[in-house]
Structure prediction request, 275 residues.
Amino acid sequence: MSLLEIDHSDRKEVGITGERVSAIGLGTWAIRDYGKCLEAYLYAIESGVDNIDTAEMYHNGRAEEFVGELVKRVGRQRVFITTKILPERLVSREEVLKAARSSVKRLGVSTVDLMLIHWPNKSISIGRQVRNFESVYLEGLARYIGVSNFSLNELEEAVTAVRKADIVVNQVHYSIIHRDIERDLLPYAVLKGITIQAYTPIERGAVKDLEALKQLGFKYGKTPIQIALNYLISRPRVIAIPKAESKKHVEELLGSMGWRLSSSDLMLLSKATLT
Prediction:
């Protein structure tokens, strides 16, 4: 699929695994009220969202425990779990496995669906850290592996460094405002069959104040946040992972799926300067 083509599917493939997850996932960074958030995420899963992102560093592991609570409530098969390992763990295979086992324990599962390097460790080569990290796949702690915050060059190195696993995801900052990856990283991902997970996709709510999105929202009968998310998931290989802490917010996120912006409106937005 070309970058110019509209991806109409609300179920996005993870790498080239053949496995698909909801185009809108849910993040767990900086949750303020875990009880309220649990109710919202239970509602999201009942509504078809099956894609939850967390990390060992989020609230010092509390976010992973939260996802574990969610999984206990709905059943393991209904949640595709992504978690992330800190770069300082990548210095050795033993350190990676120790951290990964701790994450899996907090999540209350035997294996996660996807484990990512949270961001590259600048003190060692990409090749070395990726091969150390690959041990989580080889030891059965993760069904798939990927990276986060990797530049194009770093991603290219990671792709060639793996031996038994594939790099199926690169999780990066991507939004209607922050579109840098469209120049090179996204085209490469589309070419190689690597899924992009877009974090901070609504810029902590800032997109709701953009006049261009307000105007399109009026045209489509959608909110600016729904327009902003639809822009992202209209791209091939892109999943958006906003956070929600209320059922009302989840409902708004769900409303970004089931339709698509026109190709002309997508083009206009891709060329506009939005601040």
User: Anything to note?
Assistant: The chain has a mean pLDDT of 96. The longest strand covers residues 142-148. Residues 81 and 113 are 5 Å apart (CA to CA). The beta strands are 11-13, 20-22, 51-53, 80-85, 112-117, 142-148, 167-173, 195-199, 238-240.
